[in-house]
Design goal:
The complex is a heterodimer. Chain A has 2 domains: about 170 residues, Uridine Diphospho-n-acetylenolpyruvylglucosamine Reductase, domain 3; about 110 residues, 2-Layer Sandwich (Enolase-like, domain 1), CATH 3.30.390. Chain A contains 11 helices and 13 strands. The relative contact order of chain A is 0.12. In chain A, a hairpin with a 2-residue loop joins strand 12 and strand 13. Chain A is α+β, with helices and mostly antiparallel strands. In chain A, the strands form 4 sheets. Chain A has a 5-stranded antiparallel β-sheet with strand order 4-5-10-6-7. In chain A, strands 1-3-2 form a 3-stranded parallel β-sheet, with helices on one face. A 3-stranded antiparallel β-sheet of chain A has the order 11-12-13. The longest helix of chain B has 28 residues. A 7-stranded mixed β-sheet of chain B has the order 8-12-6-19-16-17-18, with helices on both faces. In chain B, strands 2-1-5-3-4 form a 5-stranded mixed β-sheet, with helices on both faces. Chain B is α+β, with helices and mostly antiparallel strands. In chain B, strand 17, helix 11 and strand 18 form a beta-alpha-beta unit. Chain B contains 23 helices and 36 strands. Chain B is about 30% helix and about 25% strand. The chains are: A alpha+beta, B alpha+beta. The interface between A and B is large, with 42 and 60 residues. The complex binds flavin-adenine dinucleotide and FE2/S2 (inorganic) cluster (FES) (2 copies). One FE2/S2 (inorganic) cluster binds next to loops of chain B.
Chain lengths: ~300, ~950
C-alpha cells in the first residue's frame, strides 16, 4: 500500500519547513517512521499527501556539546543514544530508556524526536527526558525557540507543534553535576503491545545522605508525560529511607492519575507498580550519585 | 501527483540505479523490483524482524524502511552474505550460514535470512559475543519454529570460526542410544543450504507472466445477514479484471475438512458467522488496485448479537448458528462406574480451568497462486499441510473432476496445524478460472490473524477422586470447546482433548463429556497438541493439588498412577508396548534433583533478591500418534532408483519445517545403505507424489515413514530378485553395502542395477501404500490409537513477588519418542515445542471482544522472542513401538503439551498462587499475593 503521494527526502531544516508549508495536501514530518509509517499503513493515521523525511538533515543528526549542554538532534536514532558514552555519563536515564525501545533494528531508525513528537504519555525516551529536565529546540521559518519539554504535549498522542510550520530540532540536557545520578526503569507484560505498563525516569542530586534535589517522571500517570512535583517535594531534603519512600508513595498515589487500560493493566496494578518503580529507580539513582551503603532504614 | 524517484544504491557490492515509488518500502524494492526474494515478509509491521537487511552495516527492518533512504548506501541482503566466487558457481557459504546448517538452526527456514543478517551485523561489531549479547541483538528477530538455543549455539560457533579461522566446532547433539548406519545419527536437512543462502522459494516468491493479484472482501462483522451487495463500482475500476461473489461459484458453495459447512463466500440473504467471512473476491493487475476495489464494494448487513462463548452457545435460548444448531459434537468417554469411583475415594477435589484462544503465527502468512494451464487444468501453488484435501476442495468449488486440479506444494514457512484448512486456495482458483490468468492471493499478517482457524479456547472442569495413598479412583471431566464459526477439525481436536482429559494415568472409573460448540468467533481447528495442550493443563494442575492435599510428592503421585505396559487407558485400550512414561518421570526427577539442592519443589529465594522466589514444577503427558478413532490411516510412498545411482522418494506428505524430508531421506538411505546425498525427496505434488494423507496428529514419521521404508524394502527386494536371476544366486546372498549391491564376490553400482532392471523391461520403482494398524472409534473399546508418545517435563521458574513477573529459568524435557531417527531434527522439535508452549503459558492470547478481534496485529499478539528462552535440557527416552519405523513414534506435539502445567505448577510451588486461567497473568499473581498479605 502506498503511504503517500509525494515522498520528500529533505536535506535541510529550511527545505523541510518550506515543503511542509507549501504542501497543498496534508503534509507530515517523517523521522524513523516506526510510529508514523505503521499508523498510515494500518489506517490509524488519516492519509497524507506528502511525507517530509527528516532523517537525512545533518543538523538533526548530531549529538554534541553546545554551550555546556549536551545536544541530541531530533533525528538521532535510539541506538546511537544508548551507545553514546556522553549520554551514558550525563544522562544515564535516557541511555537506559533508549536502549529499551524496540529491538536493535527499530533502534537503528527510531528517533528521539519521533518519540517525543508522538506525544504518548508513557513513551520511554520522553519520560527519561522529562526526568532529565530537557529543553527542546523548535525551528520555524521565522526562527528558533527553546521550550521546556512539557510545553510540547497537549493530550495523548497530540503535540502542540504546528504540523505545517514547526519542527523539533533537538534536545538540550544539562551536564552531570557532582553527586548526581539518574535511572530509568519500566514494567512490561509478556502479552500484547510491547510498551511499558508503567515507566519511571528519576534524577537526583545527593548531599551527604540527603536528597538535595530530585526530579521524577512516571508514565502513564496522566494524559501527557509529566513530572510528579509533589512526590519530588516529599523526598527533597530527606534521607531515602524506607519510611521516606513509603511517605512518598502515599503522595504519589494522590498526585498521579493511574487508569485501567483494556487488556493491559488495571489501575490497581499500576498503583502497585508505581510504588515498586519509585523505590527501584530511587535506589539505582542514589547508588549512582555515589552514595555508599544501603538505604537507611 | 505520483512521482517515482531514480535512486542509486549499492546492493550486495554492486552499484545499481532503480526507480522507487513514493513511500515504497525497501523490502518491496528488493523483492518486487530487484527479484531478491531472499528477504522475507512476515508482518510488515516492524514486529517479526525477519525482513532484516543491513544498511551501511546496521540491521534495519526493510518492510517499513522507505526505499528512498537507501540512496547512496550499501545494502546487504541474504543473497550477498556468502563469499562470492568468480567461476559462476554458487557463493561459498559464510561461516554463519554454515553454522546454521550444521547446528540444525534451520527448520521451516522462513525467518532464517533475518536471523543470519542479524548475526552478521552483531559479529561484525562484536566478534566474541556472550549469550547475553546475542539475546540483546536478536530480541526482535522472531523464529516460530523457535530453535532459539540452537540459533545461539550456531552464532557462537560461527563467531569462533570467524575469529580463529578454525573449522566450525561440531554441534553436541544427543543421538540415538543405538544408532543404525544412517538412522539415529546426525544429518543436516536436505533443504537447509537453499534456506540459508536466500534461494529457497516460498509461494509468495513465485512470479508468473500476467499474474493478477487477489483480495478478499470480508464481512468484518461477527454475526448477521448479508442484505445487499454492490460490486459494480469495483468492477469498473481501471485495472480490475474480475469481481466474484457467491453467485459465481460454479461448484459446491461450501468447503471443510470434515463437514462442508464453510461457505467460500456468503450469498445475499446468507448468514455471516464471523468477521473473517468473505462476500466477494477481486483480481486486479496490482495488489494496490485489488485493495482499492475492496473499498468500492458495498455490503449491507443486518447485524445480530454474536454468540461469543461455548457455554452461552449451549444455552436453550441461544440462536442457532447452523441449521443443526450450535452443538458440533457431544463427545463422551465412559469407563467403569463413576459413583463407585467417588465412593471409594478418600478425597475428592474439583476445579475449573480456562485456556485461551491462540494463533499459530507461523511466520509465513498464507499465500496461494492458482494458474490455469493450457490443457484446461488448474495448478495450485501453495504451502499446505494436506495437498490432496486442497485438491479435493478446490475441485468441488470449481465443479471439476479432482484430477483436473494439481496442487504443487511449496516450501512452507511453518504450519503447526494452521495450514490444514482452506485459506486462499479456492478464492484464487475461482479468480484464475474466471480470468484465465495466474492469480496470487497473499494474506498480510492482519488478514492471517483474522481469517484462519485457531486453537480452541476451552473451559475444563475436573473432578478427581483418590485414596489416601494417592491412587486415583475416579476422574470426571467436562469440557466446553469454542470451535468458532465453522467445524474445521473441531470435532477431532475436541475428541482428543476429551480422551486425554484425565491424563496418562490408569484410572478405573472415568467419565468425560465435551461440548464442541459453534460460536461467532473465528473457527478453531488443528494446532500442535490438538486439544491435549488444553486438557493437560487442567488435569496436571489437579494432580499437583491432589498431591498437596494428600501430602504426597508430585513425582510420587504420578508414579503411582502412571500408565505402563499392561495398563488400560481411559478409553479402555490395553497398552501392549512402548509406554516410556515411568522412565520419563524418573529421568526428569533425577535431573531435577541434580539441579536443585534439596527438595526441588520448595520455594527458594534468589540470592541477593529476596523478593524473587523460585521453584520447580512437574507435569506429564501423553499424545496419540496418528489419526486413530477408526479413521483409516494410510500413506503412499514411491521409491525410484535412477540409472545414475540416485534414489528418489516421493509422497504428498507435507514438509512444514518439521523435518519430514530429512526423515524420509534418512530412511531410504538406511534401507539401501547409501549416503543421504544419494536420496532425493519430492513431496507435496498431487500429480507426482502419492497421497501421504494429512500432515497432522504427529503421524508422518510413523505412517509415511513406514510407507517410505516399506517402499524402499520392496524395491530392494525387487533389485535382489533381478540380480539373483541374472547371476543365478539366491536373493538372500545379495547384500546392499556402502552404496553398492554385493552379489557374491562381485560389487555392482546401484545405477548399474537400475540399468539391468530396465533392460529386463521392469521399472526400478515401487509404490507402497502403508496402512497403519486399525483403530476403533471412541466408545467401541479396543485400540483407539496405534501408538502413544509420553513425556515428563519439569520447569524451574522465578516469580517476582513485587511485580508478579514470571521468568522461566530451566525446562527439563524428557520424551519417549520410540526411536530418535533424526537427532538434529528432534532437538529442533524439542526446543521449538518447548518455546511454543512457553508462548501458550505466558505470552499468547488471541483476544476477541464480542466477536471482533482485538489482537489483529502481531504487535498485539506476542509470540516468544529469544529473550524468553530458558535453559532447555532434553532427555530422550527410546521405548520402541513394534510397528513404528525402527520403533519410532510421533514427536511433533507431545513436546509442547506438559510445559504449560509444569510452569504453572512451579509458580504455585514458588509463591503459592494457583493458575487456573491462561495465559499466566502477572497482575493476577501480584494482586493475589497482596490480598493474601493483607488478610
Ligand atoms: C517494534 C516496536 C517497538 C517499539 N518499542 C517502543 C518502546 O519500547 N518504547 C517506546 O517509547 N516506543 C516504542 N516504539 C515506538 C517508536 O519506535 C518510538 O516512539 C520512536 O522513538 C518513534 O520515533 P520515529 O523516529 O520512528 O518516529 P516517526 O514515526 O517518524 O514519527 C512519530 C511522530 O513524530 C513526528 N515527528 C518526528 N520527528 C519530528 C520532528 N523532528 N519534529 C516534529 N515532529 C516530528 C512525526 O510526524 C510523527 O507524528 C516501538 C515501535 C516499534 C515498531
Ligand atoms: S518486521 Fe518486517 S516483516 Fe516483520
Ligand atoms: S525456522 Fe524460524 S520461523 Fe521457521
Amino acid at each position: 500500500m502506498s503511504i503517500c503521494n509525494i515522498f520528500h527526502y529533505s536535506t535541510s531544516i529550511e527545505d523541510a519547513l518550506q515543503t511542509l508549508g507549501n504542501s497543498k495536501g496534508i503534509a507530515k514530518v517523517l523521522a524513523g517512521g516506526t510510529d508514523l509509517i505503521l499508523d498510515l499503513q494500518q489506517g490509524r493515521h488519516s492519509p497524507v499527501d506528502t511525507l517530509v523525511d527528516i532523517t537525512n538533515i545533518p543538523e538533526l543528526n548530531v549529538l554534541e556539546y553546545r554551550d555546556q549542554k549536551l545536544f541530541i538532534g531530533a533525528s538521532v536514532p535510539h541506538r546511537m543514544i544508548t551507545n553514546s558514552p556522553d549520554v551514558i555519563s550525563h544522562s544515564q536515564a535516557l541511555a537506559e530508556a533508549s536502549g529499551l525501545i524496540g529491538g536493535p533494528q527499530v533502534r537503528n531508525v527510531a528517533t528521539l524526536g519521533g518519540n517525543v513528537a508522538h506525544a504518548l504519555p508513557a513513551a520511554d525516551g520522553t519520560i527519561a527526558l522529562m526526568a532529565m529536565d530537557a529543553k527542546a529546540e523548535i525551528a520555524t521559518l521565522e526562527g528558533r525557540r527553546m521550550t521546556p519539554l512539557k510545553e510540547i504535549f497537549r493530550g495523548p498522542g497530540k503535540s502542540t507543534l504546528d504540523p505545517k510550520k514547526e519542527l523539533l530540532v533537538g534536545f538540550y540536557l544539562s551536564k552531570k553535576i557532582e553527586n548526581a545520578g539518574s535511572s530509568f526503569k519500566r514494567i512490561m507484560r509478556p502479552q500484547g503491545v510491547a510498551i511499558a505498563i508503567l515507566n519511571c525516569g528519576l534524577w537526583l542530586e545527593r548531599e551527604g545522605n540527603i536528597v538535595k534535589d530530585i526530579r521524577i517522571s512516571i508514565g502513564p500517570s496522566g494524559p501527557v508525560p509529566r513530572r510528579l512535583i509533589e512526590v519530588e517535594n516529599s523526598l527533597r531534603g530527606k534521607q531515602p529511607s524506607t519510611e521516606a519512600i513509603t511517605e512518598a508513595n502515599i503522595v504519589l498515589q494522590e498526585e498521579a492519575n493511574f487508569r485501567t487500560s483494556r487488556h493491559r493493566a488495571s489501575e490497581e496494578y499500576r498503583k502497585e507498580m508505581a510504588a515498586v518503580l519509585l523505590k527501584n529507580t530511587l535506589l539505582a539513582a542514589w547508588e549512582r550519585s555515589g552514595a555508599e551503603g544501603e538505604f537507611n532504614d | 501527483m505520483i512521482k517515482d524517484d531514480l535512486i542509486k544504491l549499492n546492493i550486495n557490492k554492486e552499484t545499481i540505479s532503480v526507480d522507487v515509488k513514493p513511500g515504497q518500502s525497501l523490502a518491496d524494492l528488493l523483492r518486487e523490483s530487484l527479484d531478491l526474494t531472499g528477504t522475507k515478509i512476515g508482518c510488515s509491521e516492524n514486529e517479526c524482524g525477519i525482513c532484516t537487511v543491513l544498511v551501511d552495516g546496521e540491521p534495519i527492518l526493510s518492510c517499513a524502511y522507505p526505499a528512498v533512504r537507501a540512496q547512496g548506501k550499501e545494502i546487504l541482503t541474504i543473497e550477498g552474505i556468502g563469499e562470492s566466487s568468480n567461476n559462476g558457481t554458487d557463493p561459498k557459504l559464510h561461516p554463519i550460514q554454515e553454522a546454521f546448517v550444521q547446528y540444525g538452526a534451520v527448520q521451516c527456514g522462513f525467518c532464517i535470512p533475518g536471523q543470519i543478517l542479524t548475526a552478521y551485523a552483531l559479529l561484525q561489531k562484536n566478534p566474541n559475543p556472550t549469550i547475553k549479547d546475542i539475546r540483546y541483538d536478536f530480541k526482535d528477530t522472531l523464529c516460530r519454529c523457535a530453535g532459539y538455543p540452537t540459533i545461539e549455539r550456531a552464532v557462537m560457533a560461527a563467531a569462533h570460526t570467524m575469529r580463529t579461522g578454525e573449522p566450525l566446532p561440531l554441534p553436541q547433539v544427543p543421538t540415538s542410544v543405538k544408532p543404525l548406519e544412517i538412522i539415529g545419527n546426525l544429518h543436516v536437512r536436505p533443504d537447509s543450504i537453499e534456506k540459508v543462502n536466500g534461494k529457497a522459494i516460498y509461494t509468495d516468491d513465485l512470479k508468473f507472466d500476467g499474474m493478477l493479484y487477489a483480495a478478499v472482501k470480508r464481512t468484518h462483522i461477527p454475526h448477521g445477514t448479508l442484505i445487499s451487495l454492490d460490486i459494480e463500482k469495483a468492477k469498473n475500476l481501471e485495472g480490475v479484471e474480475a469481481v466474484l461473489t457467491a453467485k459465481d461459484v460454479p461448484g459446491q458453495a461450501t468447503h471443510g475438512l470434515v463437514i462442508h459447512d464453510w461457505p467460500s463466500m456468503i450469498d445475499i440473504g446468507g448468514k455471516v458467522r464471523y468477521v473473517g467471512d468473505s462476500v466477494a473476491i477481486v483480481a486486479a493487475r496490482t495488489e494496490e488496485i485489488a485493495r482499492m476495489a475492496l473499498d468500492l464494494i458495498d455490503a449491507e448487513y443486518k447485524i445480530l448479537d454474536p454468540i461469543t462463548d461455548p457455554v452461552q452457545a449451549n444455552q436453550d435460548d441461544a440462536v442457532d448458528l447452523h441449521e443443526y444448531g450450535n452443538l458440533l459434537k457431544h463427545i463422551k468417554v465412559r469407563k467403569g462406574e463413576m459413583e463407585d469411583g467417588f465412593e471409594e475415594a478418600d478425597l475428592i477435589l474439583e476445579d475449573t480451568f480456562f485456556t485461551a484462544t491462540t494463533d499459530h503465527a507461523f511466520l509465513e502468512p498464507e499465500c496461494t497462486i492458482a494458474k490455469p494451464t493450457e490443457d484446461d487444468r488448474m495448478e495450485i501453488y501453495v504451502g499446505s499441510q494436506i495437498p490432496y484435501a486442497d485438491r479435493y476442495q478446490v475441485a468441488l468449488a470449481l465443479g471439476w473432476d479432482e484430477k483436473r486440479v494439481r496442487v504443487i506444494g511449496q516450501l512452507m514457512g511453518g504450519g503447526f496445524g494452521g495450514k490444514e484448512d482452506i485459506a486462499g486456495q479456492i478464492h484464487a482458483a475461482l479468480l484464475a478460472n474466471e480470468t484465465n490468468k495466474p492469480v496470487k492471493l497473499l494474506y498480510d499478517r492482519h488478514e492471517s490473524l483474522i481469517a484462519h482457524p485457531k486453537r480452541h479456547a476451552t473451559q475444563i472442569k475436573v473432578k478427581m477422586g483418590a485414596k489416601n495413598d494417592g491412587t486415583l479412583t475416579a476422574v470426571k471431566t467436562e469440557l466446553y470447546g469454542d470451535t468458532g464459526a465453522y467445524a474445521s477439525l473441531g470435532e477431532k481436536v475436541m475428541t482428543r482433548a476429551t480422551t486425554h482429559s484425565s491424563g496418562p494415568y490408569e484410572i478405573p472409573n472415568v467419565q468425560a463429556d465435551c461440548y464442541a460448540m459453534y460460536t461467532n468467533n473465528p473457527p478453531s481447528g488443528a494446532f500442535r497438541g490438538f486439544g491435549v495442550t488444553q486438557s493437560a493443563f487442567a488435569v496436571e494442575t489437579m494432580m499437583d493439588k491432589l498431591a498437596e492435599t494428600l501430602k504426597l510428592d508430585p513425582v510420587e503421585i504420578r508414579r503411582i498412577n502412571a500408565l505402563k505396559v499392561g495398563s488400560t487407558t481411559n478409553t479402555s485400550q490395553l497398552l501392549n508396548d512402548s509406554v516410556g512414561l515411568m522412565e520419563c518421570i524418573d529421568l526428569t526427577f533425577e535431573e531435577m534433583q541434580k539441579l536443585s539442592d534439596g527438595d526441588p519443589f520448595i520455594s527458594k529465594e534468589i540470592e541477593g533478591s529476596p523478593h524473587i522466589k523460585k521453584s520447580w514444577g512437574l507435569a506429564v503427558a501423553y499424545k496419540n500418534t496418528g489419526l486413530g478413532g477408526g479413521a483409516p490411516d494410510k500413506a503412499g510412498a514411491e521409491v525410484e532408483l535412477y540409472t545414475d545411482g540416485h534414489l528418489e522418494v516421493r509422497t504428498s506428505s507435507a514438509e512444514l519445517g518439521q523435518g519430514l524430508v530429512t526423515i524420509l531421506q534418512m530412511i531410504v538411505a538406511e534401507e539401501f545403505k547409501v549416503s543421504v546425498e544419494k536420496v532425493n525427496v519430492l513431496v507435496m505434488d498431487t500429480d507426482l507424489t502419492p497421497d501421504g494423507g494429512p500432515t497432522t496428529a504427529s503421524r508422518q514419521t510413523y505412517v509415511t515413514g513406514n510407507a517410505a521404508r516399506l517402499a524402499a524394502q520392496t524395491l530392494r527386494e525387487a533389485l535382489s530378485t533381478t540380480l539373483a536371476e541374472k547371476f543365478n544366486i539366491p536373493p538372500s546372498e545379495i547384500l546392499f553395502i556402502e552404496g553398492l549391491a554385493q552379489v557374491g564376490e562381485q560389487k555392482i553400482e546401484l545405477g548399474e542395477v537400475a540399468k539391468i532392471m530396465k533392460q529386463e523391461g521392469r521399472e526400478p520403482i515401487t509404490l507402497y501404500e502403508y496402512w497403519a494398524p486399525k483403530t476403533m472409534p471412541l466408545g467401541e473399546g479396543g485400540n483407539m490409537h496405534f501408538a502413544f508418545s509420553f513425556a515428563a517435563q519439569a520447569a524451574e521458574v522465578a516469580v517476582n513477588t513485587e511485580t508478579g513477573e514470571v521468568k522461566i529459568l530451566r525446562i527439563i524435557a524428557a520424551t519417549d519418542v520410540g526411536k530418535a531417527l533424526n537427532p538434529l531434527g528432534l532437538l529442533g522439535q524439542i526446543e521449538g515445542g518447548v518455546m511454543m508452549a512457553i508462548g501458550n503459558a505466558l505470552t499468547e492470547e488471541f483476544i476477541m471482544e464480542d466477536g471482533y478481534i482485538f489482537t489483529d496485529r502481531l504487535a498485539r499478539y506476542r509470540i516468544p522472542s529469544i529473550t524468553y528462552t530458558p535453559e532447555i535440557i532434553p532427555i530422550i527416552v527410546e521405548d520402541p513401538t513394534v510397528e513404528g519405523p525402527y520403533g519410532a513414534k510421533g514427536i511433533g506435539e507431545i513436546i509442547s503439551i506438559p510445559t504449560t502445567p509444569a510452569i504453572t505448577n512451579a509458580i504455585y510451588n514458588a509463591v503459592g498462587v494457583r493458575i487456573n486461567q491462561l495465559p499466566i497473568n502477572q497482575e493476577n499473581i501480584l494482586l493475589e499475593l497482596k490480598q493474601r498479605n493483607n488478610s
